């Protein structure tokens, strides 16, 4: 099979929330496969500039744009700027997301709404701002970054689970509506990865750290680079007839009911 199926040379990819963590790892993968990468950050110009330097340090063709993905006006303005200054967007990775770990009964409504806004509404806002161009060009790739919480609940992450469960269904509906325009919309569901978001629950001896190691058949936290293969696949020609699926990169968590703590 020709590797050109996975070649992204000549493509422009926008990855939201790609100044660090999983977003950066996926953007690095897409860039190394040949695409020009457009990195979005929302919190600070300095963080964005540092990230752009890091991408350039490994020889990638990269541009950085600072805008809030929950603000439709900023999204429309920046997508227009990107498509004028860099080129039409061929690949969109909706990765930007937040999590707030609070028992539902204690969670402020405003906090619940903020998680929904960033994790579920913003993929809609950014996709909507780009898809009409993809429709006119008769091709496009949209990848929504879902989660284990698109399938399973967990104490204290109810808002996040509601958002990521919704994002899985939004992915299926985008696929339903846009596949006829040769736009493939799919998701990636990361398992438990070693990132800044999971750092608080990953410290040695933290009960959750031991739980995840036991609950994951691969017996470890994922390395963000483990996501690059699925990302390149869903960004490339190789997935031109794949629509509405979420690929779980999870070390086997969703494949198993788990095992007793004392079982090897
Ligand atoms: C948590 C974790 C998870 C992971 C990831 C799993 O608190 O349970 O942060 O949400 O980050 O989303 O797919």
Order of helices and strands: EHEHEHEHEHEHHE
CATH architecture: 3-Layer(aba) Sandwich
Helix content: 40-55%
CATH class: Alpha Beta
Estimate the mean pLDDT confidence.
96
Bound small molecules, by name, code or SMILES, are:
D-gluconic acid
CATH evolutionary superfamily: NAD(P)-binding Rossmann-like Domain
CATH topology: Rossmann fold
Total number of strands: 7
Strand order of the largest sheet: 3-2-1-4-5-6-7
Overall outline: globular
Question: Stretches where pLDDT falls below 50 for ≥5 residues?
Answer: none
**Structural class per helix/strand content?**
alpha/beta
Enumerate how many helices there are, as a single number. Answer: 7
The biggest beta sheet is recorded as:
7 strands, parallel
Report, as a whole number of angstroms, the end-to-end distance: 38 Å
Rg over C-alpha atoms, rounded to the nearest angstrom: 18 Å
Fraction in beta strands: 5-15%
Q: How many individual domains?
A: 1
Summarize the structure.
The chain has 264 residues and is an alpha/beta fold.
Task: Explain what you see.
The structure is a single chain. This protein is an alpha/beta fold and 264 residues long. It has a single domain (3-195, 224-254), classed as Rossmann fold (3-Layer(aba) Sandwich). It contains seven helices and seven strands. The protein has helices at 21-32, 45-57, 72-85, 109-137, 158-178, 207-215, 228-235; strands spanning 12-15, 36-41, 62-66, 91-94, 140-145, 183-190, 246-249. It has a seven-stranded parallel beta sheet with strand order 3-2-1-4-5-6-7, sandwiched between helices. Helix 1 crosses helix 7 (228-235) and helix 4 (109-137) packs parallel to helix 5. The longest helix is centred in the middle third of the chain and has 29 residues, at 109-137. The structure holds D-gluconic acid. Residues 99, 101, 147-149, 154, 157, 160, 190-192, 197-198, 201 line the site of D-gluconic acid (GCO). D-gluconic acid binds at residues 99, 101, 147-149, 154, 157, 160, 190-192, 197-198, 201.
């Amino acid at each position: 099979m020709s590797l050109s199926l996975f070649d992204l040379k000549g493509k422009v990819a926008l990855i939201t929330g790609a100044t660090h963590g999983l977003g950066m790892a996926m953007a690095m993968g897409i860039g190394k496969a040949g695409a020009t990468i457009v990195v979005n950050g929302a919190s600070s110009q300095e963080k964005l500039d540092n990230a752009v330097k890091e991408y350039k340090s490994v020889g990638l063709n990269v541009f950085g744009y600072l805008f809030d993905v929950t603000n439709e006006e900023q999204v429309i303005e920046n997508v227009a700027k990107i498509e004028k200054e860099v080129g039409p967007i061929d690949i969109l990775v909706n990765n930007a997301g937040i999590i707030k770990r609070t028992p539902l009964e204690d969670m402020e409504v405003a906090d619940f709404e903020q998680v929904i806004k960033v994790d579920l509404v913003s993929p809609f806002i950014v996709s909507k701002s780009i898809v009409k161009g993809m429709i006119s060009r008769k091709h496009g790739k949209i990848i929504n970054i879902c989660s284990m919480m698109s399938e399973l609940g967990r104490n204290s992450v109810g808002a996040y689970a509601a958002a990521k469960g919704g994002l899985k269904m939004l992915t299926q509906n985008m696929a339903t509506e846009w596949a006829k325009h040769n736009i493939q919309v799919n998701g990636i569901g990361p398992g438990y990865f070693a990132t800044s978001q999971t750092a608080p629950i990953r410290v040695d001896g933290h009960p959750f750290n031991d739980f995840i190691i036991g609950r994951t058949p691969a017996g470890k936290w994922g390395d963000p680079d483990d996501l690059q293969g699925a990302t390149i696949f869903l960004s490339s020609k190789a997935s031109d007839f794949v629509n509405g699926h979420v690929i779980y990169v999870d070390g086997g968590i969703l494949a198993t009911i788990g095992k007793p703590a004392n079982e090897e």
